[in-house]
Specification:
Structural class: mainly beta
Radius of gyration: 19 Å
Strand order of the largest sheet: 3-2-1-28
Number of helices: 1
GO molecular function: 6-phosphogluconolactonase activity
Distance between the termini: 11 Å
InterPro entries: Cycloisomerase_2, Haem_d1_sf, Lactonase_7-beta_prop, WD40/YVTN_repeat-like_dom_sf
Keywords: Carbohydrate metabolism, Glucose metabolism
Organism: Buchnera aphidicola (Thelaxes californica)
Family: Belongs to the cycloisomerase 2 family.
Number of strands: 28
Bound molecules: ligand LXAUTJHC
Length: 329
């Protein structure tokens, strides 16, 4: 089966759509002008929709994905602040949009078409908020406050039903670590944080909300690396056996194995990859890893070995320019 790849390229104010054929060829099937710089994107296959955060006239545009997997714009909602990350709750009725510059999270309701309707609630004072996502039980929203070195936790039912937040907890992360993106273990109660400023990944035990704690802090870069740290993205596989993380300064993609019971990490390998890899994506069958480089202006596709987690270069495609976010259908 073919895989369709969606890439936000703010440098040319466009979304690229590429097709990875069964024979592993990459072809461009559409490049659409977004009338503004697209940054985070989120694909909702259940409704054939693609949400795109646009700046500097801040908004979320919604695109419909047709049978050929091409897109056209169907809806737009204005926002006060630019957004850096979009996620949905587990019922796909709400969006959570994090704003690093606005230090907040917008909770937005979706109508029956899946279009963003109203800002229901705004969680304020999350300094340098780069990411927010609800846990698999659809109860607690976890978000990163990069400038505070904290991870915040909020109960989503309170915000949706009562327009309030009484329940608010936070976990203090390493000093000057800068937690940026998170990834939830698919079946166990562990959470992984990539830290922008210290080249590390944290493993967090979230079994008991009264006692959330960091159980491991591991360096993600080779010991001989002496450059600056600039951690970016982190994703765990659907099988829960492997975790991947990127650094934009070292241009390295690190592969970890995940302990079956304790969720802890062990480095398997490092790969030199695209230049300034701000975003990458793993397809839902854990078969391919797609990574874009803001400086190299290209996409690389790797095949993932399901037994070892190791990557094998498959293909590369030029993206003009500053590709910043990638996802697939
Ligand atoms: O990861 C980062 O994100 C912030 C915000 O990104 P922006 O594209 O919204 O400006 C950025 O300022 C920071 O330098 C970068 O490391």
């Amino acid at each position: 089966m073919s895989i369709f790849i969606y890439i936000a390229a703010p440098g040319t104010e466009s979304i690229y759509i590429l097709k990875l054929s069964q024979k592993k060829y990459l072809t461009k099937i559409q490049q659409i002008n977004t009338e503004g710089e697209p940054q985070p994107i989120l694909l909702l296959p259940e409704k054939n929709l693609l949400y795109v955060g646009i700046r500097p006239k801040n908004r979320i545009d919604t695109y419909y994905i047709d049978n050929e997997k091409k897109i056209y714009k169907v809806h737009s909602i204005q926002l006060e602040y630019p957004i850096n990350h979009i996620s949905t709750d587990q019922t796909k009725n709400f969006l959570f949009c994090s704003s690093y510059h606005g230090n907040l999270i917008y909770l937005i309701s979706l109508n029956h078409f899946g279009y963003p309707e109203h800002i229901l609630f705004t969680i304020k004072n999350i300094y340098g908020c780069h990411f927010s996502q609800v846990d698999i039980e659809n109860k607690i929203l976890f978000s990163t406050a990069l400038k505070e070195n904290k991870i915040y936790m909020h109960k989503i039912s309170e915000m949706i039903e009562n327009n309030t937040i009484n329940f608010k907890k936070h976990l203090i992360m390493g000093k000057n670590s800068g937690p940026r993106h998170l990834s939830f273990h698919p079946t166990k109660k562990y959470l992984y944080s990539i830290n922008e400023f210290n080249g590390t990944v944290d493993v967090i035990n979230i079994h008991n909300m009264e006692n959330i704690n960091i159980i491991q802090n591991i360096n993600m870069l080779p010991i001989e690396y002496t450059g600056k740290f600039w951690g970016a993205d982190i994703h765990i596989t659907q099988c829960g056996k492997f975790l991947y993380a990127t650094d934009r300064s070292a241009n390295i993609l690190t592969v970890f194995s995940v302990h079956e019971v304790f969720g802890t990490l062990k480095i398997i390998n490092h790969y030199i990859t695209e230049k300034q890899p701000r975003s990458f994506h793993i397809d839902h069958n854990d078969q391919y890893l797609f990574i874009v480089g803001q400086q190299s202006n290209s996409l690389t596709v790797y095949h993932m070995n399901d037994k070892t987690g190791l990557l094998h270069f498959l293909n590369n495609f030029s993206i003009n320019n500053n590709p910043l976010w990638v996802t697939t259908y």
